[in-house]
Amino acid sequence: MTSLIKKITAPNGGVFTGGGTNTYLIGKEDITVVDPGPSIQSHLDEIVKAGNNNIKRIIVTHTHKDHSPGAKPLAKILNVPVMGSFAKFDMFQDETFDPDKILQDKDIIKTSEYTIEVIHTPGHASNHLCFLIQEEKCLLTGDHIMNGSTVVIAPPDGNMTEYLDSLKKLDNFDIKLLAPGHGDYLENPKVVTDWIFNHRLSREQKVLNSIKELKTARIEDLLAHVYDDVDPGLHPIALWSLEAHLIRLEEHQYVKKLEDGLWKAES
Ligand SMILES: [Zn+2]
Predict the structure, then answer these.
(1) Looking at residue 1, what is its pLDDT?
(2) Residues 55 and 170 in one domain
(3) Do residue 205 and residue 125 come from a single domain?
(4) Burial of 95 (0-12, 13-18, 19+ CB in 10 A)
(5) In terms of DSSP bridges, do strands 101-102 and 129-133 run parallel, antiparallel, or are they unpaired?
(6) What spacing in Å lies between the alpha carbon of 54 and ligand 1's midpoint?
(7) Same domain assignment for residues 205 and 140
(8) How far is the CA of 213 from the centre of ligand 1 (A)?
(9) What is the pLDDT of residues 33-87, one digit of tens each?
(10) From the CA of 216, how far away is ligand 1's center (Å)?
């Protein structure tokens, strides 16, 4: 898609990972590897081969097990540093993650070929980072934005309010192309982020309407109501996002959780 960015997809396709985790190699003579994916030898071999002895560092968008466990073995093979950030809660986290440098919002990685700007985008995970390749106006989105499915927001490390804020945060940057952690490149970033934002808010409205209609409801009762347009096979996953919506609605004092696990609308 761009001459500076190469994509290699790991062979770990599945319900959460679509066709597999995308690993990106940025640059030619001074390469940054983004998200080495799970520790799968054939995939690591492919990264090493594509890197042509020019890989200088490994950075990760977040530390879910489909994104970062390849970092440690790859760093050992290549003798290069790993960079990323730690999550606040250890659910679904890669326990092997051991960065040489902690990345923060606004950090810059500059080489003679390109400039990477680090953008902290919590929501899917508290430590989620997006990486903007400034010269290409291309944003590596990790799991902040996926192509082909809605991102899972699993509390407490996932947070819906932070997620929506992190989508809006991208409006502040000059972005022409999205390079997601799963699926193909996406053009028209603003159209994509606006769609996701509105889709989430309309789902949230549906949550609120359902609670009002049912008077009081358990999360399991709400699930079938709110996700009646979604394949029931995906409902166990949707349950996380539903919880994230409920927490956000409670933050805004639209709903209240009663002691017995029932949710009711605030009058
Ligand atoms: Zn993830």
Answers:
(1) 60
(2) yes
(3) no
(4) exposed
(5) unpaired
(6) 27
(7) no
(8) 34
(9) 999 999 999 999 999 999 999 999 999 999 999 999 999 999 999 999 999 999 9
(10) 32
> How many A from CA of 252 to the centre of ligand 1?
26
CA of residue 143 to ligand 1 center, whole Å? 5
Give the residue from 187, 220, 246 where a domain finishes.
187
Q: What is the pLDDT of residue 16?
A: 81
Q: Are residues 164 and 56 in the same domain?
A: yes
Q: Which domain holds residue 97?
A: 5-187
> Distance from the CA of 161 to the center of ligand 1, in angstroms?
17
pLDDT given for residue 152 in this prediction: 92
CB 25 within 8 A of CB 8: yes
Based on the domain organization, do 84 and 209 belong to the same domain?
Answer: no
The answer to whether the peptide bond before residue 180 is cis (omega within 30 degrees of 0) is no
Here the tokens at position 28 are 């030619």
Cα of 112 vs centre of ligand 1, distance in Å, is 31
Q: Are 266 and 256 in contact (CB under 8 A)?
A: yes
Stretches in the chain below the pLDDT threshold 70? 1
Can you give the pLDDT at residue 148? 78
Helix boundaries (H) for 71-218: 71-78, 160-169, 189-214
Q: Which of 187, 206, 226 is the last residue of a domain?
A: 187
Entry pTM? 0.95
Instruction: Kindly give the distance from the C-alpha atom of residue 68 to the centroid of ligand 1, in angstroms, as a whole number.
Output: 10
Predicted pLDDT of residue 243? 96
pLDDT at position 149 is: 79
Q: Ligand 1 centroid vs 62 CA: distance in angstroms?
A: 7
Query: What is the total count of domains within the chain?
Result: 2
What CATH number did the domain enclosing 141 receive? 3.60.15.10
